[in-house]
Design goal:
This protein is of the alpha/beta class and about 160 residues long. The protein is about 25% helix and about 35% strand.
Length: about 160
């Protein structure tokens, strides 16, 4: 038994995202296959559904489970999301293409952006909004600010 104590368990970042999705077991397999996530731990409910799982991905971690409405934990809405998970990856085009080929819906086609990032946004088959991105170049803040202002002026 480890005696490590701290604000987070050993190996965990101090900020970890948690979300609930229906068909969590399938979601785990999808996130492993498409995004390269690794299941760190998984606890199943008596019926075999995922009560809690933690995955490592790209130097970070996230947790998920089946929705548990009795505890106020619900799945994503049928449309939209109040959050986006960003996955920074060296091969943004390949990961984006695999996400689409395996059931994700394109929300924003992949493109090179004014921020110096190559980005595409999808909604995975489990209802979560994922931004798949690669940072290609540093852009001076003044240029980014001007591009954002122009974007809002254009409507």
């Amino acid at each position: 038994m480890s005696t490590n104590t701290g604000p987070a368990p050993s190996g965990s970042p101090n900020l970890t995202v948690f979300f609930a999705v229906p068909n969590s077991a399938k979601a785990l397999a999808y996130y492993e296959d498409v995004f390269g996530a690794e299941v760190i731990e998984r606890f199943d409910a008596p019926d075999g559904s995922v009560a809690h799982a933690e995955l490592a991905l790209g130097g970070g971690r996230f947790q998920l489970s089946e929705p548990m409405p009795d505890y106020g934990i619900v799945g994503p809405p049928a449309e939209g999301n109040s959050f986006t998970i960003t996955l920074w990856t060296a091969d943004v085009d390949a990961v984006f293409a695999k996400a689409i080929a395996t059931g994700s819906t394109v929300l924003t086609p992949i493109d090179d952006t004014f921020s110096g990032d190559r980005i595409g946004v999808v909604r995975c088959p489990f209802g979560i909004r994922w931004c798949i991105a690669r940072h290609d170049r540093d852009v001076p803040k003044e240029e980014v600010d001007a591009a954002v202002a122009a974007m809002y002026e254009a409507g």
